[in-house]
Amino acid sequence: MNETEENFGSIYFAVLGAVALAFGVAELIATVPGEASWGIMEMSGIFLPWRAIILLSVGFFYLSSVKNFAEVHQLAKAVMASIMIWIVAGIAIWARIAGSIPGEETWFNSLEGFLASYAPPYCPEMFLLPFSLVIVYYVLKEKEEK
Amino acid sequence: MQVKEEVVKVPLSVDERWDLIEKISKQTVEFGARKHTLKDAIAELTVKPLTGIPVAIAVIYGFWAFFCEFAGTLFTDGFMVRLFDEHWLPWLQSVFPGKETWLYFIFVGDPAADNCFEAFGMLTSGLFVIFGVVLWAVLAFYLIFAILEDVGYLPRLAVLVDTVLHKIGLHGYAIVPTFLSLGCNVPGVTATRPLETRKQRFMMMTLLAIFVPCGAQIGIMQDLVPEMMGWIFLTLAIGYLGFGFVLNKIVPGKSPEIIMDVPPYQMPTLKNIMSKLWIRTSGFLLVAVPFVLLGCLIVGLMYLTGAMDWLAAVFGPLLTVWFGVPSETVAPLIAGFLRKDLAVGMLGGLMEQGIMTTFQVFTSVILLCIYFPCLATFALMIKEENWKEILGSLASLVAMVFVYGGLIHLVGIMLGVA
Asked: Quick count: other Cβ atoms within 10 Å of Cβ A110?
């Protein structure tokens, strides 16, 4: 990876790490009342404390990876952080899929009910998911160079 | 032919063998500095405690959340409860002849029941427990387990928990039988075979039998008391580590190190995952189906003959005074000898009748986990252990149930919830 890519990666994942850390703190605070919402973002559920711990770790992983970002061990931290986001966000998406198929009164949900299951609010990890995918570019780049 | 004869006639000493190995390796292996790849670096991160523990939390969270959504939300609550409670049960109640007969009671159960948890017949509760709840729970568990196994994460988890498990005389490898037991205790007990000493095997089997609920039981618990699952697992984990520590101190023998292969991370193949899933799930069903149906039959017969009321009267005072649970818990405890999932399902029936408080449900679920392994696990333990060890395991079980069950009741009294 060239210097520009390395610098961009450092700045990008520093910002993403800071945002993840802020979301993690927000989730941790939300565990006290049990739920909190902000616009189309919602923090709730019985796993909230665990998600908060994971998100805080994601933030620390990203932030600790920014120095000398091109080095393989540093890059690995960012990859691991992204995988952790994919696990949590993937489960959130899976939960919506699982809930959207069976209907309330009928065997299967109606089209309206099915689509409504995917409407906001979303958990913070789902907002981070698309931004975490940038790491795929760096992984491919690293593979290419190898 | 002649060379072979010479080798046999002049065996090499240990030193000579090492010299020979060195000579061969010098001629065949190229040595040099190896550059770490991204895969190596990720592998390192997952075994170092500082980074490995958050990753383990994320993986276990993913495991558990997938299990709940797949088995609970999608299959059991989404389709199976409706299928069994709204179609299968009313249909059976309408077509099965002789509502007052013992045959009806055994096969269909309580004629007034409006759900399969309460009916308790072989064809109602029995089939609902197996195909309505347990099958999906076991399927979800073994799917994720196979993925983690094939990716290569499990050995790394073993390395990560090695230090903690050494405190109780076990090796990090013990996480493999423990995880397997979360699916079914039977393969979990079988997986203790690589442990080197009888002490380690005895400890591991005893801990598995007492403190590790199987996937079937977890599935039913998740369906009945989802809000208590965290507390249930915390109580069991404390018991696992605490009782393991005590066993390590009192059981004679050694706990030597074992060398474990940690393979590189790799992409799992669909074929492998599917074949593992099929072998494990079908194996589980072969064990579970007869025992669940037999359990329903025995419990039904005990109700019909009045044996259950007699047992409730005999053990009632002990259950009420020492453990703080109602005497009606006798029936699930007896069913628990055959199948724990069935027994927890029976607790569900008691809950719906309003017989138990929330704390009593919690205590009963813990008691069901720790008081005796299911029959299939016990039969395997008899095969794997000698009689002295079996008696030791049983003595540990009895002591554990009384101490831990009483302690939970005491904590409940102190907190004002019992």
From this structure: 12
Evaluate whether A82 touches B55 at the Cβ level (below 8 Å). no
The candidate with the shortest Cα–Cα distance to B315, out of B331, B302, B303, B301, is B331
**B82 in A contact zone (CB under 8 Å):** yes
Q: What share of chain A is helix, strand, coil (3-state, %, to 5)?
A: 70, 5, 25
In the DSSP assignment, the letter for residue A102 is B
Q: Complex ipTM above 0.85?
A: yes
Question: Nearest-CA neighbor of B136 among B270, B271, B288?
Answer: B288
What the block records as the tokens of B176 is 């493999």
Chain B, residues 8-47, CB within 8 A of chain A, namely 36-38, 40-42, 44-46
Question: Alpha-carbon dihedral of residues B191, B232, B64, B347, nearest 10 degrees?
Answer: 90
Instruction: Tell me if residue A17 falls in helix, strand or coil.
Output: helix
- 3-class state of residue B229 by DSSP: helix
How many residues does the structure list for chain B? 418
* Beta carbons of B38 and A143 less than 8 Å apart: yes
Contact predicate A91/B66, CB 8 Å: yes
Residue bearing tokens 């020979």: B20
Contact B203, B251 (CB under 8 A): yes
- Helix H or strand E segment including A21: helix A3-30
Q: Containing H/E element for B191? A: none
Q: Residue A48: which domain range?
A: 3-145
Name every chain A residue with its beta carbon within 8 A of the beta carbon of B70.
94, 98
- Three-state secondary-structure class, residue B283: helix
DSSP, residue by residue, B52-116: HHHHHHHHHHHHHHHHIIIIIIIIIIIIIHHIIIIIIHHHHHHHSS-TTSHHHHHHTB-TT-SSH
Helices (H), B167-306: 175-181, 185-190, 198-211, 215-224, 229-250, 270-305
**What angle is formed at CA B362 by the lines to CA B361 and CA B368, rounded to 5 degrees?**
85
Q: Determine, for residues B74 and A53 on separate chains, whether the beta-carbon distance falls below 8 Å.
A: no
* Per-residue confidence in pLDDT tens, chain B, 418 aa: 444 555 555 677 878 888 888 899 888 888 777 788 899 999 999 999 999 999 999 999 999 899 889 988 899 889 999 999 999 999 999 999 888 899 999 999 888 888 887 788 899 988 988 898 888 988 998 999 899 999 999 889 988 888 888 888 888 888 888 988 887 787 788 888 778 788 888 888 889 888 998 887 888 888 788 888 888 999 999 999 998 999 888 888 877 776 777 888 999 999 999 999 999 889 888 878 888 888 888 888 888 898 888 888 888 888 889 999 888 888 888 878 777 777 888 888 788 778 888 888 889 889 888 887 877 788 778 877 788 888 888 888 888 888 989 999 999 999 888 7
* Segment (H or E) for B142: helix B135-151
Q: What is the pTM of this model?
A: 0.83
